[in-house]
Amino acid sequence: MKIGILAVQGDFAAHAAMLEGMGIETAEVRTPADLEGCDGLILPGGESTTQLQFLQEEGLAETIKKFVADGHAVFGTCAGAILLASDVENPKQESLGLLDMTVLRNGYGRQIASDVFSGKSTLKDEPLEMVFIRGPIIERTGPGIEILAKHAGKPAIVQKGRLLATTFHPELTSDTTVHEYFLRLAAESDSSKKNGTKVRAAKPERSKRELTSAKSST
Amino acid sequence: MDAKKVNGSGNGNAGPKEWRVKVGLAEMLKGGVIMDVTTADQARIAEKAGACAVMALERVPSDIRKEGGVARMASIKVIREIMATVTIPVMAKVRIGHFAEADVLQALEVDFIDESEVLTPADEENHIWKHDYRVPFVCGARNLGEALRRIAEGAAMIRTKGEAGSGNVVEAVRHMRTIVAQMKKLTLLRDDELMHEAKELGAPLDLIRQIAKTGKLPVPNFSAGGIATPADAALVRRLGAEAVFVGSGIFKSSDPEARAKAVVKATTHFDDPKAVLEAHEELGEAMKGLDIRQMEEKDMMSTRGW
Fold it and tell me: What is the Cβ-side half-sphere exposure of residue A167, based on CA atoms within 13 angstroms?
């Protein structure tokens, strides 16, 4: 399995280091051609304004939309989550529009508000470490979007099918839980490609009992 | 269900968690261009061109050089206007050792502080103890010893000093090559040779041992000082810089908007000569540069810092 990492700007190296530590082959994606042969794509943290410019001007946006339409898995962290969202506020900004949700840029404020928290998720029993850096806030999630973790009452991990997004940076911790979960989504798209059949997206291991209060709307 | 705060009282004392958040922001800036701006309009142009951050200044280095006098932290009004204008991180400079200026910038909530040799030093022996701050710091370095002393003091990002405001990339190249070569050397030495190297470099042994193992700095390593063209940006990237600062190079050129965009493009596609060529197409005149060899020691900014 090979995972592409958007490498136009941001912390793509941190994602690559984490995946390589897990024995996964990675490819830096700067042009549409770089995505060929990838089973999944990570949109890393960074500045979404800068990243968006490269996506729009160099044909990557259309390539990524087609990649998703073909059933591939995509995982966005922080700025990557902003790029995936259908609506971006503070200020209004264009995006790929692949996940029906409203995202508030720099939702917690400037760098001084950046911090490390720990919180429950449906991905494992132990709390998950969440590194927020000028992080966005997911203000609204549309129908069909599952919330796998929350922070301060707002969704921190969301999933729809093979699309996964976090408002924090699992790549800046030593915990591989979220990446492992993403690799399972990517593996499914890989096998569905080979078998020519659609496979259901992976489900979180734990029951969603603790998250039942997490309604998928604001 | 809500996440609990692990650490960090928010009272200005930084612990290990804060350190990760500070280096984390530096990680987010990788592959990008940080541009010097002196007005809200310039900041808007920089953001639109794809800058990943801006450095708010009263005067760009080439004007500081021309006008002389004492160069201090920028006026709060200028920094505030720039912070209100753009959504990307805003950095600002303080004088070397001037922790009271740093306190002011932290209270203003800038996203990053540059303890910079471009301003007139306030202390000729001591730099700021940067671990005390929640806001991350970047510092300049000419060699590995300087870089590691700054990291030991709490810098979350290192940049080459280069020679600011010169439009001449030669010093940035010298500093980047020196730092990379000195790190490479450490990876070849035996354990019993590292103490001598720590002594020679004037750097803490624990950091020396860490680099001997990893071959790279424990914080992002960027380049600054004299970068004026897209090819300059590609050059320092290929020598190991993970991102690029451009100071006078953009707004002292004949075509700031086009040049800002071109430098951003070349910084991302540094390894693709065709893309760097495209970045150079239709560019006007770059800033007029200075020959470093004609400069006197007293006029050089890169020799400030200890």
Answer: 33
Residue with structure tokens 């994606």? A29
Among B1, B34, B216, B217, which would you mutate to test the A interface (most chain A Cβ atoms within 10 Å of its Cβ)?
A: B1
Instruction: Check if the beta carbon of residue B300 is closer than 8 Å to that of residue B61.
Output: no
- A169 noted as active-site residue: yes
Q: What is the dihedral of CA B288, B291, B297, B300, to 10 degrees?
A: 30
pLDDT tens, B161-186?
A: 999 999 999 999 999 999 999 999 99
DSSP assignment letter at B98 = -
Q: Tell me whether residues A105 and B3 touch, CB distance under 8 A.
A: no
Partner residue opposite A50 with nearest CB, options B5, B24, B50: B50
The closest of B155, B145, B153, B209 to B181, measured between CA atoms, is: B145
Q: How far is B47 from chain A (nearest CA, A)?
A: 8
Check if B137 contacts A (Cβ < 8 Å): no
Tokens read off for A98: 């692949």
Task: Closest CB to A118: pick one of B3, B50, B89.
Answer: B3
d(Cα B8, Cα B22) in Å, to the nearest integer?
13
DSSP character at residue A210 = G
**Residue A79 in contact with residue B60, Cβ under 8 Å?**
no
Give the active site residues of B: 93
pTM beyond 0.80: the answer is yes
C-alpha span between B264 and B285 (Å, rounded):
17
Complex ipTM value: 0.91
